[in-house]
């Protein structure tokens, strides 16, 4: 009986060690797939990209995190500036994307810590840093600076939102600069031809510092 247990032990111990090694290898492979360094394409199986993200398409059912630079390379985006410019005439007819920020719970947000640059982005995102978008910022939350030659429609702005035609943001804690500016919940300053917030509408400069 002792021999039986000894033989069984000699067989099972190496098998157990081998299984543990295989499991650790699988975990490492999975981690290396989900976390990419230097650069990665998006969408992909990566959930976190440290470096450069080359976004070539939109993904509705998957979110990811970028620590670095995200470049928008979607070939269809070349049509968006023209369509947005036509849709933005006249810009004063536009409204912020949401009336009630409690509806944000229904959105899935990518997270960008750094710079987001491209012609057009349609994926909701939280951007901590700088957004440079040739079409506009749509369905995003900005903690930093957002700049576009057309129209911005952010959920939240904590910082500066600049758009040539106009900014139409739900909540702003900071500054809006554009031809037309509209905000449902402003704690800051609006600079433009016509400015509207929950307190008043004024030309050139408007403000509100009370919640």
- Largest sheet geometry: 12 strands, mixed
Derived structural class: alpha/beta
Question: What's the rounded overall pLDDT mean?
Answer: 82
Share of β-strand residues: over 45%
Shape: globular
Separate helix tally: 2
Order of helices and strands: HEEEHEEEEEEEEE
Low-confidence stretches: 2-13, 15-31
| Beta-strand segment tally | 12
| Cα radius of gyration in angstroms | 24 Å
Distance between the termini: 80 Å
The helical percent reads 10-25%
Overall description:
- The chain is an alpha/beta fold and 211 residues long.
- It has a domain at 74-208.
- The protein is 19% helix and 46% strand.
- It has two helices and twelve strands.
- It has helices at 2-34, 80-87, and strands at 35-42, 48-55, 65-72, 110-118, 125-133, 140-148, 151-152, 156-163, 166-177, 180-186, 188-196, 201-208.
- Strands 1, 2, 3, 4, 5, 6, 7, 8, 9, 10, 11 and 12 form a twelve-stranded mixed β-sheet that branches.
- Mean pLDDT is 82; it is low at 2-13 and 15-31.
Secondary structure elements and their pairing?
Blueprint: H1 2-34, E1 35-42, E2 48-55, E3 65-72, H2 80-87, E4 110-118, E5 125-133, E6 140-148, E7 151-152, E8 156-163, E9 166-177, E10 180-186, E11 188-196, E12 201-208
Parallel strand pairs: 1-2, 2-3, 3-4, 4-5, 5-6, 6-8, 7-9, 8-9, 9-10, 9-11, 10-11
Antiparallel strand pairs: 11-12
